[in-house]
Amino acid sequence: MDPIHLPGSLGQSALLARRLAESGSRFVTAAGFHSSSWDTHARNDQGHKDRLSPVLDKTLSALLDGLDQRGLLETTVGLAMGEFGRATIHKAVCIGWTKEYDTPIGRPIKIANSLEDQPGKPIAELL
To answer: Domain map of the chain by residue range?
Structure first.
């Protein structure tokens, strides 16, 4: 199923991501869920299994099928993840995962931090 036929902002975002990949964009993010959608603390079956996962499953399947039909799947990395695993992904794609940026008010922000505000460490077995 083409993402254009999927309802909601995630389907539309996946369609836009596919079109951007087709036009040569090197990095694309497909979003569409509210920022706290997956941050559930109660009734996870209802929230994840019944509401969030089916939409994500259909959308990712459609996006990957669309990329495959257009010959883009061999040169495209598809990644579905939350905040965990950023240190490993950054290392795999040669982004300086230990880098730190300053906010406009001078507060340091690490790309990937861990406990006690130490830099996260990539998972060697996944690299």
So the answer is: 3-75, 86-126
